[in-house]
Predict the structure.
Amino acid sequence: MPGAKHRPTVGIIGVGFLGQCLVEGLSKLNRTIILSPRNLKRTAALSKRFNCTVAKNNSEVVAKSDLVILATLPKDITTTAKNLPWRKNQCAVSIAAGIRLLAIKDAVQPAKAFRAMPISAVRLLEGPTAFQPNDERIFKLFDDLGSAHPLEEEINFEIASIFGAFYGYTHALIDEASNWAEIHGLDARYSRVLVSRMLSSAAANVIENNSDRPRKLLDDLLTTGGITEAGLKVLDLTGGLQKWQQALNSSLNRSRKLE
């Protein structure tokens, strides 16, 4: 179509679970996708299901892609990316935790290097993704997959990336709450959806009123002697809420050890 914007071809090197989620999301956006051949059983299935191209090797992925997502294990990111036919103005996006931008730059030069932390919800086009540094092409990619959250400073990205772990924790929270309801006789599927909708509604409220601390929003809806206050007292007295920051610190420390 004359005048239509070019839609970058996306290559994915390392098609594990998160790589598969990216394929599912990108296919809903009708993106052209080229996959690395490792794990042929998985890539062949994805190719058949989502009409992706499976390259002969990683060099072909890079040669035929405008934007390449490096989705291998953190320990393999730099060694996998080295000596591939990277070119100027090409984008190389590492989605591995803990690996510094400088190490990625050295491995993919003269391409432009990025770090990003997508989550599995990109398959639903609902994934918020922090990335660094900012670039219109990367913003567009992740905004289409949910929402894009650019950062310029690596230290800020490091902190924001830990919310990928937080996303994982919330599944455990949903499991605890819904299991409580199931024990009391509520249907499992009903309780899981209802609990999840409650979290989604709370998140929407915080986003809409993001100039206020979430705790203030909570205080606004509390009724003295009410059911919410009763539960909060248990969490406060047992240090249940503070454990969340301890968990985030643990994930941050683990990320720093992956360098």
User: Anything to note?
Assistant: The chain has two domains: 10-161, 163-257. The two ends are 45 Å apart (CA to CA). The chain has a mean pLDDT of 94.
